[in-house]
Design brief:
50% strand, four-stranded antiparallel sheet, 121 residues, mainly beta
């Protein structure tokens, strides 16, 4: 299993970024996927999750209405569109493969290396 995140970087408050996660080594269309983030000195937290087809999505309250998770099963790629960014969104963002519907990190069995998102003026 390999998950490779990309798309992180520096954004201004109110700005947008789109993260991607390229998946390989497993049947992507048969796997629940999610995004988590970890700020320095803090625990890893759930951000968003998506079911196998992409028809069902769920979010942490802190990002609801601003972030959108999606997937392209033909391209084996997971996405996270992040709008209206604020400094509290600064963190290392990870994509993960795991149980559909779960917001707990322990329910996800494979992780990428993370991509850094920094929101600052």
């Amino acid at each position: 299993v390999q998950l490779v995140e990309s798309g992180g970087g520096l954004a201004q408050p109110g700005g947008s970024l789109r993260l991607s996660c390229a998946a390989s080594g497993f049947t992507f269309r048969s796997s629940g996927m999610g995004w988590f983030r970890q700020a320095p000195g803090k625990e890893r937290k759930f951000v968003a999750g998506i079911n196998l087809s992409g028809a069902v999505t769920y979010y942490a309250d802190s990002v609801k209405g601003r972030f959108t998770i999606s997937r392209d099963n033909a391209k084996n790629t997971l996405y996270l569109q992040m709008n209206s960014l604020n400094p509290s969104d600064t963190a290392l963002y990870y994509c993960a493969k795991g149980r559909v519907g779960s917001i707990e990190a322990r329910r996800y069995d494979s992780w990428g290396q993370g991509t850094q998102v920094t929101v600052s003026s």
